[in-house]
TrEMBL record:
This is NADH-quinone oxidoreductase subunit I. One of its GO terms (molecular function) is metal ion binding. Pfam families: Fer4_7. It comes from Pontibacter mucosus. Residues 171-198 form a coiled coil. Residues 68-99, 119-148 form the 4Fe-4S ferredoxin-type domain. GO terms for cellular component: membrane. SUPFAM superfamilies: 4Fe-4S ferredoxins. The keyword 4Fe-4S applies. Keywords: 4Fe-4S, Coiled coil, Iron, Iron-sulfur, Metal-binding, Repeat.
Amino acid sequence: MNEVKKHTGFGYVVKSLVSGLGLTWRHFKNARNRRTPEYVSDENYFKQPDGMATLKYPYEAIPVPDNGRYRLHNEIDDCIVCDLCAKICPVNCITIESVKATEDIGMTSDGTKKRLYAPVFDIDMAKCCYCGLCTTVCPTDCLTMTPVYDFAEVNIKNMVYHFTDLTPEQAEEKKQLLAKQQEEMAAAKAAALAARKQQG
Ligand code: SF4
Ligand code: SF4
């Protein structure tokens, strides 16, 4: 009986009320704490500041690690269109179309000779599983995973990223130049063979 009185008396009610309000006030105060940028190597990276339940995204965001694997980017000026990335991709989300250049098209920034144009260089980020394999085989390091992770789209077609630097007209022109060059080479070869036969 005494025990019941102890937990229902006026003093106990006031004490509980004060203690409950104190707890609420502490949470209320702590909820104003904001997260400061920290690197994944820091001890507190995965700890939320006391009382903080949500972030004011996009005004606040948890920093991503430097070696995180997020949206792909191809620095097309440095791409030699070797197709290695497309070949190794386990989900076939890289589509490349190449056209042999008929003229000197220069070098990449690491001094690799460029011989091919890429009328199509598409990466479907909706299919990508972010394994990073394509970036590891890229011989010129032009294909990289960026820290960009917030790129949701309403239309899934917009998840296909186009990296070609050629317009459709320019691509068509390159194809025609190559076809013309191949015709000329075939004609020259046939003429040389005919001349050799005549001599023989
Ligand atoms: S990260 Fe993996 S799945 Fe995505 S494009 Fe590269 S190889 Fe393909
Ligand atoms: S592996 Fe690199 S250089 Fe080769 S096609 Fe892919 S992005 Fe271009």
